[in-house]
Design goal:
It is built from six helices and 13 strands. It has 274 residues and is α/β, with parallel strands linked by helices. The strands form three sheets. The protein has a six-stranded parallel beta sheet with strand order 3-2-1-4-7-8. Strands 6-5-11-13-12 form a five-stranded antiparallel beta sheet. Strands 9-10 form a two-stranded antiparallel ribbon.
Length: 274
């Protein structure tokens, strides 16, 4: 059994949240207030089951919008709320855990029907691709966890997001929090039923053996922006860092002013390119 468990929390994928048209799930909004309470409830359901199963440590990485969403007072007192240094690489603290479980993550940008679907930034980013395939936040964090030799074992989110999580990590055990219909429409679940399933499935997840798949390098990494000004700034930053990067070549455009393609040679460059 995995006994030291890191819970990674985003908010768009929790139950009872659908957002507002043309808006992100921004701090202070009514939907965000629902999300942060619901997120704590889902984590508490997981924590109760994990500690009952013999977990020694359950910590929460609240990563929506840079963190500081969940109120410590709303959490099971046995759950430690991390306050990571945002100047350090993403998930730098993963070595302290045996596995990673994900709550509230969402479908990637461009996903038809995905509630509040986006990748990293709904305002600025159009898509990410890795070796020619679209990737979302679950792909990114699962690869980063694997670079620390930590498997990603559990995922709770909307049904479309669960499908994308299974594509990213074949062995991951999922719980559907809601049926996703459109960007701002969903059918929600009864919380009592949901919490019972979370407890059952996360216990199963930490008691099962899971493999992890690290990235193969070098890898081709693409990031496309909604505005060309952001693309130019990003390209300059990568080149200053010494990362092989250039505008994407296109047979019609010559150079795609929205998209940068880079070659990453290690996990540090991968994280920097995100």
């Amino acid at each position: 059994m995995y006994k030291r468990i890191l819970i990674a929390l985003d908010l768009e994928g929790v139950n009872n949240v659908k957002g507002v048209p043309y808006e992100a799930l921004s701090k202070g909004t009514d939907e965000w207030k629902i999300a942060k309470v619901q997120g704590a409830l889902e984590i508490n359901a997981a924590a109760r089951a994990l500690f009952a199963a013999g977990a020694e440590k359950v910590d929460l990485w609240d990563n929506h919008g840079g963190g500081h969403n969940i109120d410590k007072a709303d959490l099971d007192p046995r759950v430690d709320l991390l306050d990571p240094d945002l100047t350090l690489p993403r998930m730098y603290f993963a070595d302290d855990y045996d596995c990673v479980c994900y709550f509230g993550y969402h479908a990637m940008e461009g996903t038809l029907g995905g509630v509040l679907a986006h990748t990293m930034s709904s305002k600025t980013v159009q898509f990410y691709k890795l070796d020619g395939k679209y990737i979302g936040e679950i792909d990114m964090d699962a690869y980063i966890a694997a670079s620390h030799s930590k498997p990603s074992v559990f995922f709770a989110g909307g049904d479309i997001a669960c499908s994308q999580a299974k594509r990213a990590v074949e062995s991951i055990i999922t719980v559907t929090t809601k049926h996703e219909i459109s960007r701002n429409e969903a059918e929600f679940r009864d919380n009592k039923e949901l919490f019972a399933e979370i407890g059952k499935k996360i216990t199963e997840a930490v008691k099962s053996e899971h493999a992890y798949r690290t990235l193969a390098f070098p890898a081709r990494f693409e990031k496309s922006f909604k505005r060309v000004e952001d693309t130019a700034k990003y390209l300059a930053r990568l080149q200053k860092r010494g990362i092989e990067a250039e505008y994407l070549t296109d047979e019609v455009l010559g150079k795609d002013a929205h998209t940068v393609v880079s070659t990453v040679h290690n996990i540090e460059e991968f994280i920097y390119c995100i």
